C-alpha cells in the first residue's frame, strides 16, 4: 500500500493550486497533470472547479481526454468538484452540444442549475460518510446539481434550495459511485479537509 499516494490534479484549467494544497495537507503527494505522460504516475485524479466546456475542449486538444477515460475505465479513483463533477457525469444538461464528459458516475447533471441571478452562495450541507456530525460549509459558484442518478450511485448530500425556476426543492449535490466522488461545491476553498481526506483514503484503499 502506498503510504503517500500520488494524486494528480487536472491542471489545464481550473482552481488547481487550492486542491494541491488540500491534498498535501491530507497526506498525499499532489501533482498537476497537463500531459498524458503525467497521468501514468498518479494513483488518483482530482478534476477541479473551473469551466467544464473549456476543460472538455482543452483535454481533447492536449490529448488528455482519452488517457483519462482509459484510466477511469480501469478503476482509477477520481474526485470532481463543480466543473469536475460535470466532467464525470454520464449526461450533461444545459451544456454545449460538443461538450464531452467521462461518464464515470451514472448521473445526469444540470450546469448552472441554481440560476444566474444568485450565481454564488454558501450553505451548510450534511454529507454522509464524513468524520464528525458537522455539516459541510459548502461554497457554490455557478454550480451544477445532480438531476438523477443511476444504479450504484450513492447520494451523499443534498440541499433545499431554489433553482433557476424559483422552486425550493431538495437537490443532490454530493454523490459517489465506487471509486468516483463528486460534489457540486468547492471544498478546496473552505479549509474543511474532510472531503479531500475521504478521497485520499479512497485512493489509498484502491492502491
Ligand atoms: N458553471 C461551470 C461549468 O459549467 C462550473 C462552475 C465551477 O466550477 N465553479 O463548468
Q: What is this structure, in a nutshell?
A:
It contains 6 helices and 12 strands.
Architecture overview:
With 207 residues, the chain is α/β, with parallel strands linked by helices. Helices cover 25% and strands 33% of the residues. The protein has a single domain, classed as 3-Layer(aba) Sandwich (Rossmann fold). It is built from 6 helices and 12 strands. The strands form 3 sheets. Strands 2-1-3-4-12-11-10 form a 7-stranded mixed β-sheet. A 3-stranded mixed β-sheet has the order 5-6-9. It has a two-stranded antiparallel ribbon with strand order 7-8. The radius of gyration is 16 Å and the shape is globular. The structure holds glutamine (GLN).
Amino acid at each position: 500500500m502506498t503510504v503517500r499516494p500520488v494524486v494528480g490534479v487536472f491542471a489545464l484549467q481550473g482552481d488547481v493550486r487550492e486542491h494541491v494544497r488540500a491534498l498535501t495537507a491530507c497526506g498525499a503527494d499532489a501533482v498537476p497533470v497537463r500531459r498524458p505522460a503525467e497521468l501514468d504516475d498518479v494513483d488518483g485524479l482530482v478534476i477541479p472547479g473551473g469551466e467544464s466546456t473549456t476543460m472538455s475542449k482543452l483535454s481533447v486538444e492536449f490529448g488528455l481526454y482519452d488517457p483519462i477515460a482509459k484510466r477511469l475505465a480501469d478503476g482509477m479513483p477520481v474526485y470532481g468538484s463543480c466543473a469536475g463533477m460535470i466532467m464525470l457525469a454520464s449526461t450533461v444538461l444545459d451544456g454545449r452540444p460538443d461538450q464531452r464528459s467521462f461518464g464515470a458516475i451514472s448521473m445526469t447533471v444540470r450546469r448552472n442549475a441554481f440560476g444566474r441571478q444568485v450565481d454564488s452562495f454558501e450553505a451548510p450541507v450534511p454529507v454522509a460518510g464524513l468524520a464528525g456530525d458537522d455539516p459541510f460549509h459548502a461554497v457554490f459558484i455557478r454550480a451544477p446539481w445532480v438531476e438523477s442518478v443511476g444504479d450504484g450511485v450513492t447520494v451523499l448530500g443534498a440541499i433545499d434550495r431554489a433553482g433557476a425556476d424559483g422552486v425550493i426543492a431538495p437537490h443532490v449535490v454530493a454523490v459517489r459511485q465506487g471509486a468516483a466522488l463528486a460534489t457540486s461545491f468547492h471544498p478546496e476553498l473552505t479549509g474543511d479537509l474532510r472531503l479531500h481526506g475521504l478521497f485520499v483514503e479512497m485512493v489509498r484503499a484502491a492502491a
